[in-house]
Design a protein that fits this description.
heterodimer; A: alpha/beta; Nucleotidyltransferase, domain 5; about 25% strand; B: Rossmann fold; Alpha-Beta Plaits; two-stranded antiparallel sheet; 11 strands; about 35% helix
Amino acid sequence: MKVLVTSQGPTVDALADERFGRAAYFVIFDGQSAEPKIMKNPGFSSDHGAGVVASQSVAEEQVDVVITGHLGPNAVNSLQAAGITAYRLPSQSTVKAAFDAFAAGELELLLAKQS
Amino acid sequence: MKIAVLSGKGGTGKTTVAVNLATVLACRYVDCDVEAPNGFLFLQPTVESKQDVLLQVPEIDHALCTRCQECVNHCQFNALLGAGSRINLFEKLCHSCGLCTLVCRFEAIKEKPRVIGYLEYGKRGQQECWRGVLTPGEPMGVPIIDALKDKLADGWSMLDAPPGSSCSVVATAIDTDFAILVTEPTPFGVHDLDMATQVIKKLGVPGAIVINRSVGDDRLIEDYAATNGIPVIGRLPFSLGAAQAIARGELLVQLPKWRARFEELGNRVRELVG
C-alpha cells in the first residue's frame, strides 16, 4: 500500500502541508521500501486546476491513501474518480508523525474510497 | 467610439459615472461588469431581447476513448483528469480552446455547448442599453464580455468595466478608444488606480481621471496624475444628497447641479476623443 503525505518541504521531518492541490511536496511511503519517495507537486505552481493536476499525479504514482488537511471540490471529485482514500492530518504535525499516526489508526477519515 | 470606465478599486463610482455620462452624451450604455451588473437599476431600460452565451466544452465518447491520455496531457487548464476508469471533464476549468478535440486520434471527443450566462438588450427612450450576466457560480466572465462587445454597432458606447485588473477588465478595455479612470482621493483609491493605469498603458488605450467623492483635498490623485502624465478631467464632490439619490436608484443627472457637472465632464470627454 502506498501512503502519501502532503508536505511543506522535501524531507520527512518537514511540516505537513494542510493544502492538497497547492502543497509544495508529496512524500510517498511504500510498504515495499524503507525510504519514502519525495516529489514536487505539479499543482503547486499550476495556474489552473491545481486539485485536478495534483490528483492526476497522485493517481499516476498509484497511491492508495492521501493524508492532507483540506480537499477542494475539484480534488474531491478527482480523488474519488481515481479510487483514492483520504485521511485528515493532525494539526502542526511533521510528515513522519502524520504517517505514524495513520499507521497507528489514529487519523480521521476525510474522503472514503468510491467503489 | 468605445469608451471604457475603469477604476481598479471597487465602489469608487464606475457605474455612477458610466450611466450618468452615457445619459448626457446620449450614447449606448454597456454593462461589462458581468459578475454584478447593476447599471440597469439606474437606467431601467425596457428589455427587448435576451440571449444565452454558450461555451463549447468537450464531450467524450467513452466507447471510442482508449484512455491514451493525449487530451489530458495537452490541456493547459487541467480540465481533464485521466485517473480512474475513464477520462473525466471538469467543465468549469475548461477555457473552450478546442485543443483536446484536435489532438484526439480516435475521434472520441466532440464539442457540446454549455450555457454560462446571457446578454440583455433594451432601450431607455432612444438610448440603447446592453448588459452581460454571468450565471452565479461560473468562474469565467470573459466569454460573456466578448459576446457583448461583438454586438455593438457603430456610434458611441460607454463600457462599464468590472473592478480590479483581472482578465475581465482587460477584455473590457482592449480595443477601446479611450478609458475613464474613476478613483477616490484615498490611499486605496490611488493604489488601485495605478493597477488600472498599468492595464490601459499595456493595452495602448489613452485615458483620463475622474476624482469621485472629492472633499477638496485631492493631492494624492493630483500628484499621481502629474507624475504619470494623465489628465484629471472631472471632480465629483462627496455628497449626502448624491448618495441618497443613488440609494433610491435614481440617475444623478435628474438633479440640476449634477446634470451640470456631468455635462461639463461630457464636454471634456468630447474634446479629448474628438
